[in-house]
Amino acid sequence: MMQSKVKSIFKAGKLPFVIGLIIIGAVAGMMYLPSVHDSIYQQPKITTAWHLIDVLNPLAAEGNPGAGASGFIEIYFVNHTVTPNTAYAHNTSSDFETWANANVAASGYNAWANADNFLCQLKYGVLFDIVVRVRWNKTHAWDGAKFIGANVRVNITLTGFGTAGMTDIVGTGIVSYNNTGAWAIWENWYWQDADGGTGVGFSILKGSPWTANKITEIKIWAKY
Q1: Helix (H) or strand (E) holding 187
Q2: Which positions of the chain have pLDDT values less than 70?
Q3: Of 27, 59, 60, 181, which has the most beta carbons under 10 Å away?
């Protein structure tokens, strides 16, 4: 009789208590695991860096960098303006070509170029700005939803042009076409003085030979 009584107490009281401990322990374990998971798998950090995507030294790319490619399109020597952010927002290359030839080009020459190793003859004593037209595709200027015009830059190196020379000077960029439905963003980059900011423009000194006024390098960058 004593043995039977002990067994009935164990079945009725002790076993449910043990099962309860097991269930609670399992729930506590499941509640704890997510915090361990989060500490191991953190959101990855996205970093960007500047990349040199096109170097013209000397100018060795045609006006079309290639189908779908980023790069140099044209360079212009345009009559100096005091409103560059408005004037250089145009998205039509022929506008710049017309302005350059009308005011800065010597007779019989162009004051713009999109070909290899170009030679321009400019009027002396006329103040002008240097404008470089560039495009960047989605590989170089796209954040997954839109083009980022601020993540690009253009640098220029030259001698002459009424300055003591310029070495790798970044210009000022103006977006001329930015449409999320397009495959690239177009920008016009300008220089009005030797430090790349706004200024009074450049000039060719009278009697100065063309060899003394040379653009030796243009660098096109993108941050991605």
Answers
A1: strand 184-191
A2: 1-46, 57-64, 116
A3: 59
For 19, half-sphere exposure in the C-beta direction (CA atoms, 13 angstrom radius) is 7
| Among 53, 111, 104, CA closest to 79 | 104
Buried residues in 111-137 as b, exposed as e (16+ CB within 10 A): bbbbeeeeebebbeebbbbbbbbbbbb
DSSP-assigned states of every residue in 97-157: HHHHHHHTBPTTS-SEE-STT----B-TT--EEEEEEEEEEHHHHB-SSSB-GGGEEEEEE
Tens digits of residue pLDDT in 182-211: 999 999 999 999 999 899 999 998 888 888
The reply to whether 89 and 56 lie within a common domain is yes
* 124, 161: one domain: yes
Determine how β-strand 71-79 pairs with β-strand 128-137: antiparallel
Containing structural domain, residue 170: 50-223
Task: For residues 86 and 34, state if they share a domain.
Answer: no
Q: Which residue has the tokens 């991605």?
A: 224
